[in-house]
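Researcher: Structure for this, please.
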Amino acid sequence: MRIALGIEYDGSAYFGWQRQAEGATVQACVEHAISVVANHATRVVCAGRTDTGVHATCQVIHFDTTAMRSDSNWVKGVNANMPHDIRVQWAMPVDEQFHARFSARRRHYRYVILNRPVASAVLQRRVCHESRPLDHNSMQKAALALLGEHDFTAFRAVACQAKSPRREIYRLDVTRSGNCIYIDVEANAFLHHMVRCIAGVLLAIGRGEQPVGWTVDVLASRDRTLSGVNAPPGGLYLVNVSYEPAFSLPGEPYLPVFG
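Model: Predicted structure, token format:
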């Protein structure tokens, strides 16, 4: 049978989601724990691979197994065999047509910026700290140019392996709560480093280093070197993956709030 899991993790200690020959990854930890509970080797498929230091509050995965376990036993058993910074939140059997990656219709990321003169001692790996004042209203105005379907070549890593640079952004909101600024972006899919690159561009505009219309120029250029430095990974969270209602997956989006 095929099982879907909802996973939450702090990515600070890991070299991203994807299994690698060297270095700890979230996928390796999850596959080891599931294999122990299932009593056979398993491989998992995720909705979206996260980079080194990036977190998730609602990663969705699936795996195939011959083991018969209750939903609660999958949750408890897998969690008992994983580090404390990775946790299964829910488990359920799904139709074999369900695919964590290819069945996903939308993915929602949140980028968190702590905007105050002094950095936080306890949130240093969970937010992006910016000591200079940020104009979040200018950042929001600039973000509007990225809504819709575009060629996002200027907003992806040079090593990105996606066949097409075209993606559709359905939502891109910049809001402030106290000392925190939140960038919420929802799209059909994302390119490698795309969200961190968008955050980096909006940060430059928020600091007043670039005009509001700079996003239009960067997008039109299709030149990665023009968009500047990626925002740090610690402020980025995968917070929701949307599927067709027919799959009836449990769980609600969990948005990290620090302000």
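Researcher: Any notable elements?
Model: Residues 26-38 form the longest helix (13 residues). Strands lie at 2-9, 45-46, 55-64, 86-94, 106-115, 128-130, 148-151, 166-177, 180-187, 236-242.
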